[in-house]
Design goal:
flat; mainly alpha
Length: 75
């Protein structure tokens, strides 16, 4: 079976079925090594942290994130 065929079949599932497939796939991935980062990633993390500290960006809650995602999907 191809990836496209598997995807087509998975999309026919109801929401709870799709969530179960998604969770199974995510569980099958290797956990990222917390000590495995490159200089670019570290630089970006420091940059973002500084933006938050200086008030240049606003953090949002997980609830706000999902609300925004859902609103984007409706458009």
């Amino acid at each position: 079976m191809t990836v496209a065929e598997i995807t087509a079949q998975a999309l026919k599932l109801d929401e709870s079925g799709r969530v179960a497939v998604l969770n199974s796939l995510l569980d099958s991935l290797d956990e990222p090594d917390p000590n495995d980062f490159d200089a670019d990633s570290l630089t970006e993390a420091i940059h973002r942290s500084n933006e938050i500290k200086l008030g240049l960006v606003r953090t949002i809650t997980e609830e706000e994130l999902w609300q925004s995602v859902n609103e984007s999907r409706r458009r």
